[in-house]
Amino acid sequence: MKKTFLFFLTTVGLFCSECTRKDITIPKPVVSKVDYDQVSIELMQDLAPQIVGTWTLQKVLVKHNPRLYTRTYVKLTGDSTFLNLAKLTIQPAAVPRSIPRDLRRGEYDGTLEYGGKTYPVQFDLRADFSWLVNRKGPQGIFLFQYRFPNGSHIVEPEEAFLKDLGLIDDNFSLEISAGKPAMVWHGFNRGVERIDLVKQ
Fold first, then answer.
1. 41 inside domain
2. Which of 35, 116, 148, 178 places its Cα 20 to 30 Å from the Cα of 46?
């Protein structure tokens, strides 16, 4: 009986020590989690003072692709570069476009001056996921649009030209370097390939 009891205790002891040893020798994997929402909020806060201001669209590169869409007001026969095309004034949106306001995006209103006319514009900047992961390349993406009051209005030739060119109603990526009065937009799909903007 004693021998059986001692054998039982020894077996249990070895079993328990084996369990304990496994817990100690096998470390639990450490997973670093990135709070993308918080990083997006911080990015928008950092970019806001750099984006707000008056900009000259110093160089607008437009790719000629007749199959992409029909241009009625812009007659291009090849790739084109427009110098000092327009002046863009950007300010934070006075009225939030989301309730409660989504701090993960930057909401901006502004005006676009072209051909002696001034048009209201808007865009909502969202963090580019590849930048959140790698901290390289464009910081954000957005859709650039007119912001006319509700109701109908007569479309002016200058207004139609900017839209036909692909500057309005296209998605862009935005890249800006801290401390430099310059910003670059890359168009996604309507003909405008790149816009170099210089802060006034």
1. no
2. 148
Q: Is 169 within the bounds of a domain?
A: yes
In whole angstroms, give the CA distance from residue 86 to residue 33: 43
Q: What is the pLDDT of residues 119-163, one digit of tens each?
A: 999 999 999 998 998 888 899 999 999 999 988 889 999 999 999
| DSSP E strand boundaries for the chain | 53-62, 80-83, 87-92, 105-114, 117-127, 140-146, 170-176, 182-187, 192-199
Q: What are phi and psi of 33, to 5 degrees?
A: -100, 135
What percent of the chain shows pLDDT beyond 70?
Answer: 82
The gap from C-alpha 112 to its chain's centroid, in whole angstroms, comes to: 20
- Number of folded domains in the chain? 1
Domain that holds residue 173: 53-199
3-class secondary-structure state, position 3: helix
Task: Note the pTM of the prediction, 2 decimals.
Answer: 0.79
